[in-house]
Amino acid sequence: MRIGAIADDLTGATDLGLMFARAGLKVMQCVGVPFATSGLEDAQAIIVSLKTRTVSAAEAVAQSLEALAFLQAAGADRFLFKYCSTFDSTDEGNIGPVIDALMERLGETRTIACPAMPANGRTVYQGHLFVGTQLLSESPMKDHPLTPMRDANLVRVLQRQTARPVSLVSHALVAEGGSALEFALDGISGMAVVDAIDEVDLVRIGKAARDLRLLTGGSGIGLGMAANFPAAELAGEPVVMAPAPGKGVILAGSCSAATRRQIAAAVAAGVPAMRVMPQALAGRTLTVEHALAFVAVNAGGLPPILYSSAEPDEIAAVQAVMGREEAGALVENFLGDVARALLERGTTRFVVAGGETSGAVTHALGARTLVIGPEIDPGVPWTTFVHEGRIIALALKSGNFGADDFFLKAWELLA
Length: 415
Ligand code: ADP
Prior knowledge:
By secondary structure, the protein is of the alpha/beta class. The chain folds into two domains: 3-233, Rossmann fold; 247-414, Four-carbon acid sugar kinase, nucleotide binding domain (Molybdenum Cofactor Biosythetic Enzyme, Chain A, 3-Layer(aba) Sandwich), CATH 3.40.980. The protein has 15 helices and 18 strands.
């Protein structure tokens, strides 16, 4: 058995990779669809990360099918389409259209949608998605700039995105598990949202769905899929990673509340910090050379941080003058350029905060295949990639993930 997963964004893929690795699977994560399947022979789970959450549905479908063809060529026989545990999507997609296309290509007539991620407080009950104690539609996700989620009933949400029937497999059946749950899954026509409120539920669902070739959901259902591997084929816990000797750096482009708290905690603990503002980049009063000089001067102690993170009103003011995309792209490109220059000067450990920022930095570093390592905080593992024969460590943190001391403790897991 070999799992092939398609993730609609990079940090979500890493989160899934961590789930598989924790269960003892050998995981390889590919950034984008690779050109060749070489180097993936040992992997029990292969994840292709895309950037399709908010592109057009047609583009998301095309890229997802390309990833599926790659995974089939790499020998995968069980497939997972991984999306956000808050079901980030609009009525136009992209979750429904991508599931439709994958089902059609695989010749499947039924699948499940199981976004629950109990470790991060995302649970599904009677088809309704909760974020902690709040319904999705009452959580901050209702105001997301690209995918505002105003309906917590996922059966309704998914039904608006697909012509296939969408039904519910409710928690009573999941809790019963075994043949009752198998019978319910066998009876699905089209897609079914499946309730799950804890990890035991996810394992029950994974076991009952072991013969389904396509599952869809958040990283949580990865736990259920991994439970179908015989214990003898599983490795132990991931070990401490040993990147090549070299310095570390933190690059933060996320403006999320958790990242801002993490920066404040790092600065309070004495981490050298340099602020990167779009205005300074546009006016060229801050250049890559300035950033390199700052890192060099602060090479002795705790790994320094370069951050663009700002309060919402400050960002709104910058965006009003420069444009949202322009300001974002300036920051992302700059942090990518700094990362690349530092890599070439011997930095071997990178912590990156922000989903979009992670994409930009990973691309700039030329990291195409990531090996998943130990977990820093829920959903955020260290990963490694190879650059010119040296092992480089890279941690990609989704904006709102991680405890306040994330930037301080991340280094302790590296040899
Ligand atoms: P998160 O995971 O918290 O959403 P992302 O990196 O995905 O973080 O998104 C943050 C976006 O905001 C990026 O495009 C980034 O370039 C942009 N950004 C970061 N700092 C600023 C700033 N000071 N002003 C305007 N935009 C910014």
